[in-house]
């Protein structure tokens, strides 16, 4: 029998890479997909297996982290060996506009899942997608012992979910772990997070489809890593003998400005000619500097990152340039018809 995993947030950046990783290891993977009025499975279409296929190893289910009963039923039906809770309203700026919704899905949603595991009586290990945003204004470098000081409804919701996870480990002996992941990006990153917003704009400017890019705070410091490497760390946490919490980061700081300059330069463009400031993209309270110390993940899990910020920017620009070229070629074919 293959190992069985349930991934919430399977349609997101990390969910799609994690599903690929687990399938490559011979897992049966179940993914929780929320209902949407338009298709929201673009990142996993290439691994989709239809309901008519025999011996499916990748199965999708409609459910929602807001619906605790659906979670209990799902767990009872699937009886997974491992659960990865990646589902969340994950955008920090948006969390100021939708604070209660963010608290409900990102915070309480994690508790609903933990409680659903308890209520269903399924023995499983659970990974909670915790975040460096929990550190907020705590000065860098941040590690597992750094006190939390969140600066957004999103950060506060993640702190709630973090402690719920620790509590279920302590109260019920559950194998429940927090991965405290610093920013990680890829060509599959959502288009409104700053790295992808920049690399997508670079590709469009290069192709003559756009001239200006409007951004907010360019002085923020982040520790950007490569998403496919970070999902490997999630998996390693659930394979360890003891449940524990781990920071996952590169330890390499960069400002938003540095990422912008690297991305534009890689495409032969001058950022100064195209980038403009718009206060709309500022947050009511900002997180100035996140730089992770991932020594514990390195020493205990043997995990270490290889792709650092400048290479990451180049990978993402190259992918977006290809994407724009494909889109333009597709448009030309449509016009030809
Ligand atoms: P994404 O925003 O790309 O994906 C979020 C996923 O959650 C999507 O599949 C989304 O579905 C799903 N989701 C949203 N609301 C609900 C809901 N009510 N019920 C069920 N699912 C829902 O995030 P990432 O892949 O980047 O991140 C994965 C997790 O890791 C998130 O919890 C995020 O907060 C956390 N994290 C991310 C970091 C990063 O740098 N990427 C760093 C640290 C933590 P849909 O596709 O329909 O929108
Ligand atoms: P973050 O990522 O808030 O760190 O959360 P984001 O890419 O949104 O912002 C990073 C920094 O860039 C600044 N910034 C802008 N951000 C956006 N989105 N758009 C802009 O135009 C812009 N201009 C400047 C921001 O102010 C910020 O300082 C991400 C998410 O993936 C979370 O889910 C995750 O938990 C954390 O990373 C770790």
TrEMBL record:
Catalyzes the conversion of GDP-D-mannose to GDP-4-dehydro-6-deoxy-D-mannose. It catalyses: GDP-alpha-D-mannose = GDP-4-dehydro-alpha-D-rhamnose + H2O. This is GDP-mannose 4,6-dehydratase. Belongs to the NAD(P)-dependent epimerase/dehydratase family. GDP-mannose 4,6-dehydratase subfamily. GO terms for biological process: 'de novo' GDP-L-fucose biosynthetic process. The lineage of its organism: Bacteria, Bacillati, Actinomycetota, Actinomycetes, Kitasatosporales. Its cofactor is NADP(+). Residues 6-316 form the NAD(P)-binding domain. It comes from Streptomyces sulfonofaciens. PANTHER family: GDP-MANNOSE 4,6 DEHYDRATASE (PTHR43715:SF1), GDP-MANNOSE 4,6-DEHYDRATASE (PTHR43715). It comes from the Bacteria. Keywords: Lyase, NADP. Its EC number is 4.2.1.47. GO terms for molecular function: GDP-mannose 4,6-dehydratase activity; NADP+ binding. The gene is gmdA. NCBIfam families: gmd. CDD domains: GDP_MD_SDR_e.
């Amino acid at each position: 029998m293959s190992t069985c995993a349930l991934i919430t947030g399977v349609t997101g950046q990390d969910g799609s890479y994690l599903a690929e990783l687990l399938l490559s290891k011979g897992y049966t993977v179940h993914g929780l997909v929320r209902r949407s009025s338009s298709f929201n499975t673009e990142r996993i279409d290439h691994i989709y297996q239809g309901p008519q296929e025999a011996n499916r190893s990748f199965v999708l289910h409609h459910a929602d982290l807001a619906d605790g009963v659906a979670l209990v039923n799902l767990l009872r039906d699937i009886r997974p060996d491992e659960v990865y809770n990646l589902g969340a309203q994950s955008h920090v700026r948006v969390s100021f506009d939708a604070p209660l919704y963010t608290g409900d899905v990102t915070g309480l949603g994690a508790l609903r899942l933990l409680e659903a595991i308890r209520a269903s009586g399924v023995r499983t290990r659970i990974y909670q997608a915790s975040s460096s945003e929990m550190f907020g204004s705590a000065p860098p470098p941040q590690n597992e012992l750094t006190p939390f000081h969140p600066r957004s409804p999103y950060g506060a919701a993640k702190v709630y979910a973090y402690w719920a996870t620790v509590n279920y480990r302590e109260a019920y002996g559950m194998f429940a772990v927090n991965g405290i992941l610093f920013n990680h990006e890829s060509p599959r990153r959502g288009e409104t997070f700053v790295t992808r917003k920049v690399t997508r704009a670079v590709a469009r400017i290069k192709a003559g489809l756009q001239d200006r890019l409007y951004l907010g705070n360019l002085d923020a410091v982040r520790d950007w890593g490569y998403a496919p490497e970070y999902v490997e760390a999630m998996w390693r946490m659930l394979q360890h003998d003891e449940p524990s919490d781990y920071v996952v980061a590169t330890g390499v700081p960069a400002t938003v400005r540095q990422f912008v300059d690297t991305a534009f330069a890689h495409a032969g463009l001058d950022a100064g000619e195209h980038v403009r400031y718009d206060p709309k993209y500022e947050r009511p309270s900002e997180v100035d500097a996140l730089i992770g110390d991932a020594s514990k993940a390195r020493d205990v899990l043997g995990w270490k990152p290889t792709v650092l910020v400048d290479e990451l920017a180049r990978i993402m620009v190259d992918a977006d340039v290809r994407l724009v070229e494909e889109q333009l070629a597709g448009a030309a074919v449509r016009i030809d018809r």
